[in-house]
Amino acid sequence: MGFSLLAYLLLAISGGWMFWARQHRRWGPRFLVRKLHYLLGGILVSLVLLLLAIGIVGTLGHYGSLGHSIHLPAGLAVVALVLLSAYTATQIGPYRPWARTVHITTNAVLFFGLVLVSLTGWTVVQKYLP
After folding, report:
1. Contact, 120 vs 25, CB < 8 A?
2. Residues 6+ apart with CB under 8 A from 57
3. Is 130 part of any domain?
């Protein structure tokens, strides 16, 4: 989970950098930042899907069923938000002005989702520890 949070933080920094460069008409190495942003986004998607798989397998292996806490719906919401964010990122362009707004809004909501999933995940991990 820590790597996912780090990826999210780096995405926020690189996204903020792209926003600042666009607002101030600075062209510099923006294409490099965009490529880095896409790479970090792919890493975040991969990490979130990996955490989903680990959580489902671990919970089924330990309890035999799912849904023992609020962590499952919170985690599924985070997965959905990350996938929506990734999809809208691929749609950003001059012919889809809505995509950037949806992408940024989704990422703002994702912040709160990650906070919730981190807090609820801590209680789940405490159940596994002896």
Report:
1. no
2. none
3. no
